[in-house]
Amino acid sequence: VSHFLSIPWCACLIQTPNTVPFIPQCFNPKSPAHDQLVGATLAGPRGLQHMLCFFHTEDEAHLQDADRPIMHVSSLFALGEGLSGYEGVLHGGMIMTMVDEAMGVLHEINSALGKTGEVFGTASVTAGLEIKFLKPGPINQTVLVNAWVDSVEGRKTRIKCEVRDGNGIELAQCASTWVSVRARM
């Protein structure tokens, strides 16, 4: 958290009232066989240096109310120089990885908080992802990825997402479909 608190625009976001910051599972893998792409392979001084997620509660009872899911999560990514595609430009594949992880965090946090609903009771996976790159992404900077639930239909969750730089400029937009995985018999 301290890294992002040292960046004024990030500190403003994290320190807003009713904000709950957390380190996502993908950046702190629970085992050597889980979440290795972001938490082990990409993490490091030249790669993904830091990651922090946060959401805002509507009121004090929001966290404990199983019937009120978290519908919006923001993720901060501190990006190193080793993530470039072209010189000084963030690789498009890294942008796709960040949005996929940020959208997955929506399911992760709702499941961890015991929120009800078929899509939060089991693991969910990306079934489709459509991205529009609007501007080149920076390296050696921090970007913000906002992800929100657009709709839930049975086992499918439609999630939208945007990527913004520290000046608030929109770099990418994404829409995706996630499907909850049924337990095997």
UniProtKB/TrEMBL annotation:
InterPro entries: HotDog_dom_sf, PTE-AB_protein, Thioestr_dom. It comes from the Eukaryota. CDD domains: PaaI_thioesterase (cd03443). It holds the Pfam family 4HBT. Residues 88-170 form the Thioesterase domain. Gene3D superfamilies: Hotdog Thioesterase. SUPFAM superfamilies: Thioesterase/thiol ester dehydrase-isomerase. PANTHER family: THIOESTERASE DOMAIN-CONTAINING PROTEIN, UPF0644 PROTEIN PB2B4.06. This is Thioesterase domain-containing protein. It comes from Trichoderma citrinoviride.
